[in-house]
Amino acid sequence: MSSSLLESVDIEAPVAVSWALWADVTHWPKFLSHVRTVERLDDTHFVWQLSLPGADKNFVAELTEVKPQDRIAWKTTEGVHHAGVVTFHRLSDTSSRVTLQIEYSPEGFVEHLGALTNLDSVLANYDLGEFRKLAETAAAG
């Protein structure tokens, strides 16, 4: 069974700021609460270390599309099935919208429960809120 989520957040920061923060994978653990580390292997591959309720997971993901200040897409090449895209939308000179879409295959009871109860969406919204704080702080500085 495959699950998906689609969430977005409006940010008081230009697209360039939002893009720069998300495009640097080393920033991901700062706003993705379940991501412990992201290690770049080369220009398109990186290793994720996740800490989820009831399970720690590692996987290798590949960037499948990178359009500066527009979109970043990825899919896993090793480990869990996971694919996603984050898109960046200009709302004004000083504000943007970031939209996150993820497709994944839940494994085990806890992950299936998270998918069924929309806990995954709650977590995604929390993480996007953390990203908003980081981007707005960067834009103000």
Automatic annotation (TrEMBL):
Pfam families: Polyketide_cyc
Coenzyme Q-binding protein COQ10 START domain span: 11-117
SUPFAM superfamilies xref list: Bet v1-like
Name this polypeptide is given: SRPBCC family protein
Gene source species: Streptomyces chrestomyceticus
